[in-house]
Structures are given as structure tokens and as C-alpha cells.
Automatic annotation (TrEMBL):
It comes from Hibiscus sabdariffa. Coiled coil: none annotated. This is Asparagine synthetase domain-containing protein. CDD domains: Asn_synthase_B_C. Keywords: Amino-acid biosynthesis, Asparagine biosynthesis, Glutamine amidotransferase. The lineage of its organism: Eukaryota, Viridiplantae, Streptophyta, Embryophyta, Tracheophyta. SUPFAM superfamilies: Adenine nucleotide alpha hydrolases-like, N-terminal nucleophile aminohydrolases (Ntn hydrolases). The keyword Amino-acid biosynthesis applies. Residues 336-391, 494-622 form the Asparagine synthetase domain.
């Protein structure tokens, strides 16, 4: 994975199917993004290769004109996304861009891919199931073969109305619906006949990243995606979209018709609905559950004391981890000493991930545990990380664990803050910014470690170290599915079990928009691929099959009743200390929230009075002396994206539309 983009000019596109309220308000405002700007934004992610493919459509011919343009031999003039005046009215242009962080296959691969029929594919994702990929195969090539066998029907009634009915051909939606794992694709499908069947805006951009507008590059406060308070980017709701290009029904112009397709996989539809088997317990059921939990706490060394339900969750998580770190699928040109790292706070979720990674990764590999602190060794996350790595060394003494201390001073992160602002948009609150900065620093992996020698670790001697791992495991999804947030306890207190279920369902159905797009862009900016074991489809299905009172019991205190099922899993893994740790968000555990409050509001008390977490990050800007000053609102891009899973659905990772 790394990033993909599609730049369309000269086609009048009906965007009504996307249900984007803000598109009409920005239709008269244009940003001057060049093709080189877009390439630079993708190259920023550190891909192994970056390629482009240009497709020209002519109104005077039924055929398309195709032109290759690879980064290694680009000789075209930069294409400017202005008002479209540089494109002839008789032509439309589509430029496909593919940046590849190659983690599979035995031979190097460059995108876009073009098959013998002229179909074009750029793909950004990982297949953890659904389509068989051999240990030496590249998943992009396998996907291209599968899509090449599809019919070109756009009908929802494919099986009864398609021209290929009875010939064993499925639809594109059929193929995409079976993929397990995070993905984003842009696929140009040639029709059998060779014909190409808001207020007007001739520009259309789908992208994993937002290019920098030259008009904003000299700005003291640059969000890199817009000005004048107009929002250009939006997170695209999850699903499969197609655009049909036709010139037969217009007077000398290309028309683009966008359609959203239904998932054809029944399991995915069920996971999107996110309905639990059992929500409200009978008094006897709740009493039995609490009695069993109490007995397990008193007999933590006996495997028989753990519930079958917790065993099922552990099995699902272990299989999820195996799918995400199977090294025979990692591109062999990169045989890092440390192929996989963990975003590590020493808390419950990251400790479970680290322990499972140890069970699934070849013991010869080291494991980097990346910990970010804005308060040196005094930050809560640093303290729990130090304790956590000691517990991991006790549980898995043969593994070489490496705690990477990533220390930061918020007052010195000027350009870094601007960079992260461009990555998190359209998210724009201080909470989003604080989380984004912490994730971005963690993904870079630049810090220090205690000196290692044959007799152990010398904690008094520190050496600089940068993690070379290209895969970063993240615990997103655990709190949403297992009632780990404070608002879950509040909802339960006011509306009991049904209210808790509805709040958790809401969290899962919006996680793609509120969390995953932001987090993925911040991590991918350093050439790393984020993987989310808790958001595996089978893990989500397993948790939904468990009665809610077995997942969480919020009548119990923090550190016991919240994420109850995961605490039992931690006990089964031997993580007895981590199993009782209370929830602590990264912005608080790393102390970046405290430093941000002091910098932008003067104190934590003032920040709390202003509800700092929800204040837009462009509302206050530091001048050259570090003083907070008022600033006009800036707009952020509207980034269209599909992260790892929405209620368990394997969906597109990150696509943007303008």
C-alpha cells in the first residue's frame, strides 16, 4: 500500500450520487494543482515505485488514445488543474497515478497496470482473504486478473440483465465484495463495444493524498488544501462507486454518471448493520457472568477458568494477526531485521497486539515498540510502556524486544504541525491535530533505545535508533467494539444496555470518518503501512456474536468492566498487569494534549473551559514568537476515503475527491 490517484479533466460529472453537501459551495473556487504537485504528494510517502498512465477520450472517435508516462522517463508538460481550458472540448483526459509500497511478490511491480484488453488498475491495499494469493504472488496482479474476467455491467440486477448472463462472469462489485482487508482501487474498464458510454466543474480528483496548492506554499499558516473558508475535500462514505463516461447523449461534451453499488457479500452487509446477537441480560445471566469473572480473577493461572467466549476472541485475534504479519507474503527485496513494529503505549490493546505478534512472527525477528512522549520519562504512556516491555520480556523471554523512546517538544514542531494539518483534514479539531502529530511521530520511528549487549540491556546508556519497520500495527477498533470510551459509560448510566449498544454501533459505523482516514494518512506519510488487527472482519463477527454483558460490564469500575472480554484475553496471554490498566487515550498518555492546551489556551483549565478538544485547530495560530493569535478559518480538503473496515467491512483505504 502507499497511494493512488485519478485526475479527470474535460468531463461534466453529476456528483449527486455521492450526497456531498459542500460540493456546490466550492464549485466556483478552483485550486491550481499541477500533476507534479500530485506526484510530489505521493512521493512524500516513500514508495518503491511511482507511475502514471494517461488516457485521452475523443468525441470524434469510438476509441481511446492511451499514452504511457512512467516517472523514470517523464517528458510531458505538467498538467494544470485549472478551469480545464487547456483541454480541447473534443477530448477528455484521465491520468491514473499509482505509488506502491511493495510488501508482496518476488519481483518488483510498478503501477498503473494495463491488461491486454486495455483495462487500467491502480490499487492500494492488502488482501487477507477472499481472493487466493500465492505466497510468491503479488496481490495487485491477482486482482487485475480477477477484474479482467468481470463483465462491464453496471446493473444491480447483474445476474438477470447482464449481456454475459450464463457465461460465468461476475461483476466488479462481486469481486470487490469478497476481499478481506483494507483496500482502495481505481479501475478503468473498457466496454465490449469500445464506446465510452454541481454546477459545471471540469476537474475531478480522486487521491490518497492532497497535493499542495502553490498559492498556499508561502502562507505562514498552511493547511495545504484550500483558502477562504471553502472546503474542497470530503471523506467519501464507504462503498463501491462507478463512473460511466458517455458522449452520445450530449452536444459536444463528455458526461460522467456516478453510481453507488450494493455489496454482494451477505456477511459484509450484516457487518455494516452491526447488530449484536444479545444486548440486554436477564438478572440470572448477569449474575452468572460476574460470578465467573470473579472466579477467574482468583484463579488466573488456570486455563479452565477462562470462558469459551474469551477463547473464541483470542483465536480470532491470533488468526487476524497471522494474516497481517505472514512474512512469506512480504516483498523479499526488503528483509528488514525488524519488519513489523507496534504503536505502543503499554496499555491493554497494544500489549495484546505485541503478545500476539510474538506468537505469530518468526522468533529470529526483533520487534520494535514505538512509544511517543511529550514529557520525557514522566508521561503516563512512557511509564506504562516501560512496565509493559518488562512484562513482555517475562512472557516471551526469547524475543528481542526493543522499546523505541520517541521524545518530542511541541513548541519546536512548527513545520511538522503544518504537515500534519494537511494530513488530518477534513478533520480539524485540536484533538485530531494532537492525535495526528503523535501518530506521525510514531510512524517516523526516530528516537533512542537503551544500549543492548550480550548480558542484557544497559538502561543507563542510550543510543539513537530509527525503526526500519514498514508495517505498523495499531490498536484502533478495540475501544469502539468493547466499550472502552468514557462516553460509553455515560450512555450506559443514562440509557442502560440498549443505549450502550447504540452508542457502540454509532462509533463503529463512523470510525472510518472520525479515525481511520486521519490515522492512516498520518502513518502512511512516513512510508509505513498501518494494519489494524482488531478490525479484521472475523474479529468483528466474533465480538458481535458475544452477548454485550460479556463484552463489557460498566457497573464495574474502570480497568475492570470496560473492555471486559479483552481483559480476559490479556489474562490468557499472561499479561496480568496490563489486564487491569484503565483506558488512556494517546493524546493524554503522551501528554501532547496538556502541552497543546498550555500553548494554545494558556493552561489546562482554560482549555477545558473552552472545550479545547472540539475547537477547530485553525481558530488559533501561533505567530513567529509562539504567541497564540486569532486567525481566519482556513478550509481543509475534502478527502474521500475508505479505511480498513467499517463495521467489519473490508473497504477502500483512502480515496479523495474534488
Amino acid at each position: 500500500m502507499c497511494g493512488i490517484a485519478l485526475l479527470v479533466s474535460g468531463i461534466r460529472i453529476d456528483l449527486s450520487a455521492l450526497s456531498i453537501d459542500s460540493i456546490s459551495s466550492s464549485s466556483k473556487i478552483h485550486l491550481a494543482f499541477s500533476l507534479d504537485d500530485l506526484k510530489a504528494a505521493l512521493e512524500r510517502r516513500g514508495p518503491d515505485s511511482l507511475g502514471t498512465k494517461k488516457l485521452l477520450l475523443s468525441l470524434h472517435s469510438n476509441n481511446s488514445i492511451s499514452e504511457n508516462s512512467w516517472v523514470s522517463s517523464v517528458n510531458e508538460e505538467p498538467h494544470v488543474l485549472d478551469d480545464g481550458s487547456n483541454i480541447s472540448e473534443s477530448f477528455a483526459e484521465l491520468v491514473f497515478l499509482g505509488a506502491t509500497l511493495q510488501l508482496r511478490g518476488v519481483a518488483p511491480l510498478s503501477q498503473p497496470l494495463v491488461d491486454s484488453s486495455g483495462n487500467i488498475l491502480v490499487y492500494n491495499g492488502e488482501m487477507f482473504g477472499g481472493i487466493e494469493v500465492g505466497s510468491d504472488d503479488n496481490d495487485t496482479e491477482i486482482l487485475m486478473q480477477s477484474l479482467g474476467n468481470c463483465c462491464s455491467c453496471r446493473s444491480q440486477e447483474h445476474k438477470t440483465t447482464c449481456d454475459f448472463n450464463g457465461q460465468g462472469k461476475g461483476s466488479v462489485a462481486d469481486v470487490l465484495s469478497v476481499i478481506k482487508g483494507p483496500w482502495a482501487i481505481i479501475y478503468w474498464q473498457v466496454t465490449p463495444s469500445g464506446k465510452f458510454k454541481n454546477p459545471v466543474d471540469p476537474r475531478f480528483l480522486l487521491s490518497s493524498v492532497s497535493p499542495t496548492s502553490p498559492s498556499l506554499q508561502d502562507s505562514d499558516f498552511e493547511v495545504e488544501n484550500g483558502t477562504n473558508g471553502i472546503r474542497f475535500w470530503e471523506e467519501l462514505s464507504c462503498g463501491i462507486y462507478s463512473m460511466s463516461v458517455d458522449a452520445t447523449k450530449s452536444d459536444g461534451i463528455f458526461l460522467g454518471d456516478i453510481k453507488k453499488h450494493e455489496w454482494t457479500n451477505v456477511m459484509l452487509k450484516e457487518l455494516i448493520e452491526w447488530e449484536r446477537v444479545s444486548i440486554e441480560p436477564e438478572p440470572t445471566q448477569l449474575d452468572f457472568s460476574r460470578s465467573r469473572t470473579l472466579n477467574a480473577e482468583h484463579d488466573i493461572n488456570s486455563s479452565s477458568s477462562f470462558s469459551v467466549l474469551a477463547q473464541n476472541v483470542l483465536t480470532a485475534l491470533r488468526e487476524s494477526m497471522m494474516r497481517r504479519v505472514s512474512l512469506h507474503n512480504i516483498y523479499q527485496a526488503h528483509k528488514e531485521t525488524v519488519p513489523v513494529a507496534v504503536l505502543f503505549s503499554g496499555g491493554l490493546d497494544s500489549m495484546i497486539i505485541a503478545a500476539l505478534l510474538d506468537q505469530c512472527l518468526d522468533p529470529n525477528y526483533e520487534i520494535d515498540l514505538l512509544n511517543v512522549s511529550f514529557d520525557g520519562e514522566s508521561a503516563p504512556d512512557r511509564i506504562s510502556a516501560e512496565a509493559g516491555v518488562k512484562e513482555l520480556r517475562r512472557v516471551a523471554p526469547l524475543r528481542r524486544w526493543r522499546l523505541v523512546h520517541i521524545d518530542a517538544d511541541l513548541s519546536k514542531l512548527t513545520w511538522e504541525t503544518k504537515r500534519v494539518l494537511s494530513l488530518i483534514n477534513p478533520a480539524n479539531t485540536y484533538m485530531d491535530l494532537n492525535i495526528g502529530i503523535a501518530l506521525w511521530l510514531a510512524a517516523r520511528g526516530e528516537g533512542w533505545m537503551c544500549e543492548e549487549h550480550d548480558n542484557g540491556i544497559d538502561e543507563d546508556k542510550h543510543v539513537n535508533y530509527t525503526s526500519g519497520a514498514r508495517i505498523l500495527l495499531v490498536g484502533s477498533g478495540a475501544d469502539e467494539q468493547c466499550a472502552g470510551y468514557g462516553r460509553h459509560r455515560t450512555k450506559y448510566r443514562h440509557e442502560s444496555w440498549l443505549g450502550l449498544h447504540e452508542e457502540m454501533k454509532l462509533d463503529m459505523q463512523r470510525i472510518w470518518k472520525r479515525n481511520l482516514g486521519r490515522d492512516d494518512r498520518c502513518i502512511a506519510d512516513s512510508g509505513k503501512e498501518a494494519r489494524f488487527p482488531f478490525l479484521d472482519e472475523d474479529v468483528i463477527r466474533t465480538l458481535l456474536d458475544i452477548p454485550l454483558w460479556e463484552v463489557a460490564d460498566l457497573d464495574q469500575p474502570s480497568g475492570k468492566g470496560d473492555k471486559k472480554i479483552l481483559r480476559e484475553v490479556a489474562q490468557m496471554l499472561g499479561l496480568h498487569n496490563a489486564a487491569i490498566l484503565p483506558k488512556r487515550a494517546i493524546q493524554f498518555g503522551s501528554r501532547i494534549a496538556r502541552e497543546s492546551n498550555r500553548k494554545n489556551f494558556g493552561s489546562n483549565r482554560a482549555a477545558n473551559q473552552a472545550s479545547a478538544g472540539s475547537v477547530a485547530s485553525h481558530a488559533l495560530v501561533s505567530d513567529s514568537n509562539g504567541t497564540a493569535v486569532a486567525a481566519d478559518p482556513c478550509y481543509y480538503s475534502h478527502s474521500f476515503q475508505k479505511p480498513e473496515a467499517v463495521s467489519g467491512v473490508s473497504l477502500v483505504d483512502d480515496i479523495h475527491l474534488v
